Amino acid sequence: MTMTKEKLSNRQKLILELVLREYVTTALPVGSRALSQSYDLGVSSATVRNEMAFLEELGYLTHPHTSAGRIPTDQGYRYYVEQLMGEVTLPLTEQRMIQHQFHQVRQGMEQWIKLAAAVLAHTARSAALITAPRMVESRFKHIELIHVHGLGALLVLVTQAGVVRQEALTLMRPLSQASLSRTARRLNDNFSGLTAREINTLASQLSPFESEIVAVVQSILNELDKQGGREVYRFGASNVLSQPEFATGDLGQQFLALFERGTYLDQNLLQLLDVETSGEVRVIIGTEGLWEELLDLSFVLSRYGVNGIATGTLGVLGPTRMSYERAVSAVRYVSELLSNLIYEWHGLQD
C-alpha cells in the first residue's frame, strides 16, 4: 500500500519521527513540552505544539482520550515507513552472530526454518511465522538404506526442499549394509534432482530390488505433492504478550488465540504476499490489513527461496507500535540468508 507524499516541512518530518520513536520506546503519549526538553529542536514548545496539531489535522497523529500527548496513527506509521525510515540493515555484528548460529545447527531445511523463526522473533522482538519452503513438484535429493535387523531395513528419503521422510522396509532376503549402501548410491546417481514423474520414465532400467525401492520413493514424493497445505513454524508469542497493549484486558488473549490456533492466520499469511521476488519486504500496518482480528497488529513479510525451485514466506507480527527498522531489517536479512541456504542446498552454485 503506497500513499501520496504530503508536503511536510523538514521540521514537521522531524517532529513526526521523534513522536513515533518516543512512543515506540515508552508506549506513552508524547507531549510537546517533553519533546522540547528531550531534543534540541531550536524552537519553543508552543511551536512544537502547533506543528503537532498540524500533523494531527493531516491524520498522522492523534491524542487518546483527553491526554495532552499524541501518538502516531496507522497513517503516521505508513508515512514513516515509506518516507522517513529509508533503507535499513542489521548491524554487521548481529549479522555475524546470526550466521554463526546457522553454522552451529545440523544442516537440514527443518532445522534452518526452526532456527530462523527463533532468530526472527528475537531480533525483531516480535512474534515470527515462517512457512516451510514448497516446490512446484517434490524432487528427489538422496536416499539412505539402513540395515536394521534380519529382513528389516529403513529407507530415509531427503527431497531437494529439505523434507525428510522415513519408511520401514521388509526385505525379501537378508542384505548386508554394504549391499544396501551400494543400491542407495546407484539410485542417488541416477535420480538426483528428478520428480516422481521423471523417475518413472527411467524405472524400466532398474533391477527388481531397485524397482521396489523406487516405488516407495515415488509413493512418498507423490504424497508430498498432494499435500495442499504448508507447515507454518511460529515462535515468540511472549514478545508480543509482554507489550503494554497486550498485558491487560482481552487483547492479549485474543492475540494468543489467533497466533496459536493457526488456521486463520496461516491462510492469510500464505495469501499476503503478491510479490514474486525473494527479498522484497512488505509492511502491512493495522487497519491496512482489512481483517478485524488484526486491527491492532502489523505484519512485516517477505518471500524467501529460489523462484521455480522452492519458496516460502516469513515475517513478524507485532503491535502497530513496533520498531519497523528492526522488523524490516530482520525480515530482509533472514529472508536473504534462507534464500542463500536453499540456493546452496540445491547445488546451484556448482
Describe the fold and architecture.
The chain is of the alpha+beta class and 350 residues long. The protein has three domains: 75 residues, Winged helix-like DNA-binding domain superfamily/Winged helix DNA-binding domain (Arc Repressor Mutant, subunit A); 159 residues, GAF domain (Beta-Lactamase, 2-Layer Sandwich), CATH 3.30.450.40; 87 residues, 2-Layer Sandwich (Enolase-like, domain 1). It has 14 helices and ten strands. The strands form three sheets. The chain has a five-stranded antiparallel beta sheet with strand order 7-3-10-9-8, with helices on both faces. A hairpin with an 8-residue loop joins strand 1 and strand 2. The longest helix is centred in the last third of the chain and has 22 residues. It is elongated, with a radius of gyration of 26 Å. 35% of the residues are buried.
List keywords for this structure.
350 residues, alpha+beta, Arc Repressor Mutant, subunit A, Beta-Lactamase, Enolase-like, domain 1, 3 domains, 3-stranded antiparallel β-sheet, 48% helix
List the helices and strands and how they pair.
Blueprint: H1 10-26, H2 32-38, H3 45-57, E1 61-62, E2 71-72, H4 74-84, H5 92-104, H6 109-124, E3 127-131, E4 140-149, E5 152-159, E6 164-170, H7 177-191, H8 196-200, H9 208-226, E7 232-235, H10 237-241, H11 244-247, H12 251-261, H13 263-272, E8 281-285, E9 297-306, E10 310-319, H14 324-345
